[in-house]
Amino acid sequence: MTVLRRSTHRAPSRQLEAAGSITRARILAAATEVFVRRGIEAGTIREITKAAGVNVAAVNYHFGSREALLRATLAEVAGPMNAARLQALDQEARAHAPHAPPLPAIVDALVRPLIETPRWQDGTRPLIRLIQQLRALPHQMANQLMAEQFDAVAHRFIAALHAALPHLSRAEIVWRYEFARGAVVHVLVDCDPESGRLAALSGGACRTGDQDELLCQATRFVAAGFSAPGR
Amino acid sequence: MTVLRRSTHRAPSRQLEAAGSITRARILAAATEVFVRRGIEAGTIREITKAAGVNVAAVNYHFGSREALLRATLAEVAGPMNAARLQALDQEARAHAPHAPPLPAIVDALVRPLIETPRWQDGTRPLIRLIQQLRALPHQMANQLMAEQFDAVAHRFIAALHAALPHLSRAEIVWRYEFARGAVVHVLVDCDPESGRLAALSGGACRTGDQDELLCQATRFVAAGFSAPGR
DNA sequence: GTCTATAACACGATAGAC
DNA sequence: GTCTATCGTGTTATAGAC
Fold first, then answer.
1. How far apart are CA A156 and CA A136, in angstroms?
2. Separation of A124 CA and D6 C1' (Å)
3. Which nucleotide is nearest to B20 (CA to C1')?
4. Touching check for A177 and chain B: CB below 8 Å?
5. B85 touches strand D (CB under 7 A)
6. Domain spanning A66-226: CATH 1.10.357.10
7. pLDDT tens digit string along A9-34?
8. Architecture of the domain spanning B67-226
9. pLDDT digits over B16-41, tens only?
10. Confidence check: pLDDT of B3 > 60
């Protein structure tokens, strides 16, 4: 709840975002844990500060509000993954210059960093859980947070895909880009120990903990989808 | 929030689930509206009863608890869609007997009812929004609600797909079944007016309100993914 | 069956001492 | 920078009148 609650927060009067504080770092780590395990809406400032071993008032002192803390949490988790994607795409572009990178290289640059995003000991990928939750929340704020983190990368990849598949219209590229993202994120959620859906449906036949298997299955499905005939 | 809140509900002592009540029906309709627009966690009993024009206490009288109301809401929205899927699959099975239905027929039976699920005037598909939210909630209850509604259908379709694609292992069928579901649900969320992400990414080039276009794009991507070479 | 009123509790944010 | 205490507001669920 209460992401939506009419905030009574007026104007953050102290120095916010001073990234040096040890307390700040502890809050950020605890917030990731709580938002993932308990849910973005259900996780409370009180839980977070308790898990971080700091005072209840510290969140508002260091971040200004619960929403600003959520934004910082997402940036910390999604930033490195998107940077890895862009770096991989750039590398492929250099390797194939002056030609455009071929489809399999682009798909790998898009999918691999998502699958190889850090996992906790139990196999949970915190980034995946945050993405899934933010996409489901019917708040404009959630859409905005996602756009802040992912739009730049999306446009880069759509351009690269358009160059690799020039026979498809831009609209068809975008359709398939989102089909591809959905397929991979959905299955990563299913692979999460919290869900276990893929293991349940397959009677344990899908090795959901095997990253190589997952990457192999995902790239094959996605590349085939992109390679479907156009209109 | 408070789906998780430790409930103090003891034992529903009056007749629950007596489906005849007019009040009950009004609550159910209002609950769908509120859970979709405001979110499953954020939507409160007070909002629902206010929208339904009934008393606050009526939810606990007719359903027993907030969670039971959510279960009834999902069943009402997801039930007809899954029935349509099974009916379509049965029809294809009869049409192709004694052979197994071919891949395109199965994909159509799987995807079309999801896309043609009822929409509100603004284009929102309530079922899609409920699915997306339930998949994101980190509660065991949410997983259970999804399994109750979708597991039977999943097993039917996986069996049909296995018959149509006998060169693939059962594990590979399940991987691709979930890739397919994820691709379609993800894009349907993007087509929702609340999100608008597909329209934004494509600069308006994707006609997200055109059901025929959506079905065409989805079945092409999904069928190609299933047709990818096996291991 | 439907209402009002309330119990019992949780929340985010902040004032103000240290 | 960190604490305690508190304000104002929200929640589910239920007791008891009608």
1. 25
2. 39
3. C1
4. yes
5. no
6. yes
7. 333 434 444 556 788 999 999 999 99
8. Orthogonal Bundle (1.10)
9. 444 567 888 899 999 999 999 999 99
10. no
